[in-house]
Amino acid sequence: MFGLVPMGTHFTVRPAAHPLGFVEAASHRAEFARAYNQYLTVAGEGDETGLVLRPLFVTSLLLDLLLSEEEPDRAQTAILTSASSKTAYGLAHLLRERTVQTIGLTSAGRLAWVESLELYDAVLAYHDLHDLRRQRGTVLVDFAGDRAIVRKVHEQLGETLTRSLLVGFTHAQAESDQAPLPGPTPEFFFAPDEIARRGRELEQRYAAAWERFAPIARRTMHIKRVTDGDQLVLLYQSLLEGRADPAAGYVVSLDPARRKS
């Protein structure tokens, strides 16, 4: 079973039939987006790469579909922050398939690794944002959630920036400011709303898109297993502090019988 399953020994649901699995139909879950209540059937343990990347790549695909609806002259170049994140480089792959120029922004420490992915046309460190060239038809897709970075990009590109999408918060500790930005007003992208809007179209497009991306995912990411509660805490802390290995996908499996008393 694949979905938003809590980490626990039991999972109580009121299942309703769905062609690919089931939907949680309990009344207390009714207010949540359908994406948070849908569970898919998988055979055996399933593909661990897909296990890690499936929800992330769905967001990548949704963003690509959204940007593909833009007029061609409004989305010729895409700037992606937090370029080492898996959702970002999944999107970079999809954009390059459509010959959209991609520019990845990342920390200085991850610059070489992001370049090694060979999924971006150019990669810049955050301290080199002054090197961004003004090109008409540029969109910003922000996965970092760092308002200071967003502001610098808006100020650097000005009227050549046609759209600004806020997607993620990999820089969770970054301070934010609410002062108006030059250029387009940033839009918050909420994947569950897009999933509902796309419906069956997404399911059909996902299978084909994943088949093309899966070899890249397996080349760029290695699986690390975590089976101990203390290891899980350390991993969680490293994620919060930005120290986790971007080349790793983590699969956590805790045995209740091994829990400390």
Instruction: Tell me the name of the CATH class of the largest domain.
Output: Alpha Beta
By helix and strand content, what is the structural category?
Answer: alpha/beta
Strand content: 15-25%
CATH topology of the largest domain: the name is: Rossmann fold
Overall form: globular
Biggest beta-sheet profile: 6 strands, parallel
**Strand ordering within the main sheet:** 6-5-4-7-8-9
Distance between the termini: 29 Å
Q: What's the helix-strand series?
A: EEEHEHEHEEHEEHHEHE
DSSP summary: helix tally: 7
CATH superfamily heading of the largest domain: NAD(P)-binding Rossmann-like Domain
Determine Rg (CA atoms, Å).
19 Å
CATH architecture of the largest domain: 3-Layer(aba) Sandwich
Helix content: 25-40%
- Number of DSSP strand runs: 11
Regions with little confidence, pLDDT below 50 for 5+ residues: none
Provide mean pLDDT, rounded.
88
Number of domains: 3
Please, could you describe this protein's structure?
- With 261 residues, the chain is an alpha/beta fold.
- The chain folds into 3 domains: 1-44, no CATH class; 54-194, 3-Layer(aba) Sandwich (Rossmann fold), CATH 3.40.50; 221-261, no CATH class.
- It is built from 7 helices and 11 strands.
- The strands form 3 sheets. A 6-stranded parallel beta sheet has the order 6-5-4-7-8-9, with helices on both faces.
- Strand 10 (222-226), helix 7 and strand 11 form a beta-alpha-beta unit.
- It is globular.
- The relative contact order is 0.14.
